[in-house]
Structure formats: C-alpha cells, structure tokens
Amino acid sequence: MSKKILPLVLGAAMGVAATTAAGATTLEDVKAKGFIQCGVSQGLPGFSNPDAQGNWTGLDVDLCRAMAAAVFGDASAVKFTPLSAKERFTALQSGEVDVLSRNTTWTMSRDTQLGLNFAGVNYYDGQGFMVRKDLGVTSALELSGASVCTNTGTTTELNVADYFRANNMPYEIVAFEKADEVVAAYDAGRCDVYTTDASGLYAQRLKLTNPGDHMVLPEIISKEPLGPVVRQGDDEWFNVAKWTLNAMINAEELGVTSENVDNMKSSDNPSVKRMLGVEGAFGEGIGLSNDWAYNIIKNVGNYEETFNANVGPDTPLGISRGVNALWSNGGFLYAPPIR
Amino acid sequence: MSVMEQDSAGAPARASLVNDPKYRGYFYQLLLVVLLVTLGYVIVTNTIANLERQNIASGWGFLENTAGFGIIQSLAPYSETSSYGQAIFVGFLNTVLVAVVGIFFATIIGFIVGIARLSNNWVISRIAYCYVELIRNVPLLLQIFFWYFAVLRAVPQKREKWSFFFDTFHLNIAGLRGPKPIWEPGAEFIGYALIIGIVATIAVSRWARKKQDATGEQFPVFWTGLGLIVGLPIITYFVTGMPMTLEHPNFVEEGPILRRGFELGVGFNLIPEFLALTAALAIYTAAFIAEIVRAGIQAVSHGQTEAANALGLRQGPTLRLVIIPQAMRVIIPPLTSQYLNLTKNSSLAVAIAFPDLVSVGGTVLNQTGQAIEIIGIWMAVYLSLSLITSAFMNWYNQRMALVER
Which of A231, A300, B170, B229 could form a disulfide with A66 if both were Cys (CB 3.0 to 4.6 A apart)? Predict the structure, then answer.
C-alpha cells in the first residue's frame, strides 16, 4: 500500500463514521427511497404471514401498508423484512427497518432502554397456554411439572417463569428461536404446553397436525399490548406511525370504510371532513399530504375492516373483537380525535 | 514524515534513512499500527456517540440485574432470580460441555472410521467410505434438525419409555434418564482414591518403560493401571461404608395424565436437545477426522509396515507401535482445526433450543437490548476457547513430534 493511499483510506473511514453519526430523518429517507421497510414476523397467520406467492397479509402487515398509503398514496410501497423475536429490536435500532410491526409487546424497559418508541397499540393481547385435550387439564394452575415450549427472547419467556414461580409449580422451559420450531417440537410431543400470546396460539394451532386435539386454557396470565415500534428521537416519523393507527381507529368510529370513503368526503360531519382533509391541514402537520387519511382508508381500510379480514370471526383464526372493540362498544380502542 | 528524512549524524557516509530498507520497514509498520489504533478509536467513539444519541443503554451494569427467565439445563446453580451474568455463565458451561463431549466422541468415531477405511476387508472399508461421503456432504444444520426432529419422533412419547441396561437407563422424547449418584459424607475419599490411582498409574508406567529400556522385559501396565484406577475407588467405597447411593428416575404411571411419565428433577437426565446436538456434531466432525486419520496413516511409508512385519510384529502392535505414532505427527495439526470447528459449530444449538452461550446470550440480548456488549462476550468466549484448545493441541503436537537425537 503506497503512502498516498493510506491517508485516503483513513479519511474514508472517518467519513463513513461521520455520515452514520449524522443521518437524515426517517420520513425523508423513506420518501427518498420510495418505500417503507417494514419489520414483520417470520410467519404468524392473521398478523403477518406470507402466502405461496410471497405476498404478506395480516393485521400488522396492514399497518405498514397503511403507513405507505399515508406517505405515498400507494399501499404497495412497502417491503417486508421477516425478523425473529430476537433480531427485531437490533434490526430497528440499526436502521435495517423503518418500522417494526411484529406483534411486539409494549413494556417499560423496551420503551425506555432500547432507544425505541411504541406508537400505540393495534392489538390488546394476553399470554395463554395451549395443551393437548387428552391431558385432561382444565386450568393453568394444574400445569405443575409440565414442560413448556416457547419462543426465546420474548416477554412470554419471562411471564411463564413468573407465573410458575408465583404459583410454586416446577416446570421445564424449552425455548426455541423460531416460532415454526416451537410448533414442530410441541407437535412432536416434546412439550406438554405451548405458551405465547393468545392470538398467536389460535394462529399457530392451525399449523398443528390435528388442530382439534388441542385446546387453549382459559387463563390469561399477562397484559400484552402489541403495537408498532419506531426509533426514538425521530418525532416526525413517530407521528406518522402513531397517527396512521389513530386514523384507522377513528375511521371505524366515524363509520368511514374503504367502500364509502369517496362519498364520505362530502359528509356534513366536521370530524369526517377534518380526517379526510376536506377541512383544515392536518396532513401537513405530520409532513404528509392532506389526503393522508383518505389514502389509508381508501387503500387499506379502517381498523374494523383489517381486523375482520385478517383475524376476525370469518377467518380461520375466528377471534372475536373482545377487548379490541371500540371504546364505545365496551373495548379498549380509543384514538385521540383529529382536530 | 519529515523527521525520517533527516540524516543521522552518526553515519554521514551512509545513504539517507529514507532509502534504508530497514528504517523504511519500521516506518511502514509504525504507520500501520497508528492507522489501526486510529481506526479502532474512531469506531469505538463513534459507536458510543451513536448509542448515546439513540438513547440505547450501554455499559456492563446489566450483568447484575435479575434475569427472570428459566434455563432447562444448567451445570451451575441457576434459578429465575439469578442475574444475567449467571445466565450467561450457565450458557458458557453448556457450550463447553457440548464441545468436550462432542470432541470426545468425534475423536473415537473418527479414528475407528479412518482406520476402517484402510481395512483389507472390502465391506468394512466401503461402509467407512459411504459414512464419510454421506456425512460430510450434508450441511450440519440439516443433520442437527434430523437428529432433533426426525429421530425425536421415533422415540416413545413422554408417558412411555424404552428401558435398557437392566432397566437402569430409559429413553423417551423428554430425554435419556439414568441413575444419579447421591454423595454422602465420606464420599470425598473415593475421589482421593481415584486421584491416587491415576498418579500411581503414571508412576508405574514410567517405571515399566525404564525397566523395558534397561532389560527388555515388559510389564502389564494396562491391567495394573485399570486395577489402580477402577479398583482403588471401589475398595475405598466399601471401606468407607458405601457413602454413595443411586437415585433412580421415578416413572409415574398413575394419577393425572400430565404428571405421568418421569418426575421432574429426580434422577439423571440428558435432555434431547443435548443428545441431538452432540450426536450431530460428533458424527459430522468424525467424518472429517476419519479423512485426516486416513491421510496420516497413508503418509507413513509402506516400508515401515514391511519392516515391522519383518521383525515379527503382528498387525495390532504394528499399527499401535509403529504406524500410529508416526501418523500422529501428520494428524494432529489438522485435527486441532476440526476440534476448533466443532466448538464453534456448537453455536448452532440455538436452532434446537439447547441453552448454549449463543442461545442464552441471545435471550439476554433481547431482554436488555445491549447488543454490542453481548456480541463482545460471544466473541471473547469463542476466541478464548479456541486459543486454549490450540494451545493444548500445540503442546501435544510438540510432545509427539519427531525426537531427533
């Protein structure tokens, strides 16, 4: 290596360091590259699951598509990165993905110590247990001495430890990296119990050899508010994620669907007018065009539509709205108004 | 650089330092060191700045926080209330366990298959050939999955068992169970007896070698050693009043179905994750070791065999006393790298839920979000393990090297 090249190499190394330290905002980055890079699961039916053609569908996927619709007016301007539970935060921190929409539980330590922000809750979940029916178990409190299969790097792993310890029951934990391996091991009979979020149990049960031989126990042992995550310190992008979700929930509350959204533009309801950008300039406030919410609803739909299409009673998962109903229907979903 | 251009006052007749190849060499080496240090400094400060800017926690304080998750197999005391540091240590011990057991079996299988490949018996050499070609050409991860998922489905379910060795060992999908020794006061003497037996065996073998060198008479070192190492502890066991009992696994056949099968924590249990991982690693690495052994033996000139035969040595002693010692010089260096490979490949444990260093570390990483620290620990541990293995094998290699007179 000649003397002339060495300073160049050194300079280049420092230059690279300087650019990574500065960086543009995520919204600018996303607009410049023309799509959103969205971190999803490696295959959880109803939430984020690829079909045979590689098209992703699910509740979490729809949130990313809605964000793409809000930014670009095109719900297909999104690319998906399947991530294991273990990889997900590092992928978001390092900028590999722009948003993480991967049935991720909002906890205090994740919100405060990882340099991440949770942009809301798109599914209120809780951890449950699935067992073989022939075990004759009817309550989780009868699981003393059981071996439990779960995913490593999840809140599930910690909750199950807490639950068995609090109830003074011995257990054996078998923790896998990928959800598919957990299902395979449980199906093979390695474990008596499979534990994860209740929604996940219903989804993974479909992958078992005989789904009918298994049952989900009634106990829900934890609070698992699942929601989209973005990097901390980028408020503009945080707002886009937060208000995309809020717009979908507000749209359901105001009765705006993907089918009637064009007619609703001429609605007399000022709330609807503000949301659809007929009145005011709310889109500009989050760095988007004024028809951002219109694009979300038109291209993806409101919360009810995506819920029913992906996990609702008419899907193989058959999950009822339960606590995920609107606040006005006795559920938890409550979005701040657009005004 | 301008400093280097000044002429040294002491040697005016010589050419300038710039053109002196020796000083030029020093200069470039110094420059390289400065460059590497600067690069390292830039990377470290930049990383720290980025972490602070993104509000990501850093530092080693997390190692003392409560882990809160369970680990299925631990060689050190561990519970959910232990710290992250202890959890990582448990993972480290599991990695060492798999590496040691894997290396042990890989070496045995590898030597047997390697020698079998050179057998004059056509069937044996073909079987060994097929083993090597089949095993080393299938990716290791697939073999681990095969042992874990395919073989696992073939063994009995949790409420059933296969028993063997007079009903002392049992195999089912939850693992291999056997009796666990329970030590009572006085049992330490058995350990001392074992140590004395080993030391005495070494002494006897040295004495026997001297005697053979001096008189040509042989002494049955093997049987004496066996007697000392096995016999002495057994005698101590009875003399001290049998201070060790065996705890047999408890197979429950009545009561609620969930409780049937082997009771948790009673007896000795090897979890199926461990069995599958060790089997896959040992069998895979053995295929490579077999080739190394074959190459080593073939590297010994055929004249050595003929000379040994001419002296009237039978086939066994020829192999043991003439061929293998010479072949070892060729075998050991590549064998070392296979041992290192096996140790590093054990990190594939994460695929089948065996709690090794990478698996447990990954969990800690996910719970704390401190990626850089954890990856630093991983790299430091694997580096140290590899360096220790290399150091040991280099020492062994020197011992086996040709002693020139």
Answer: A300
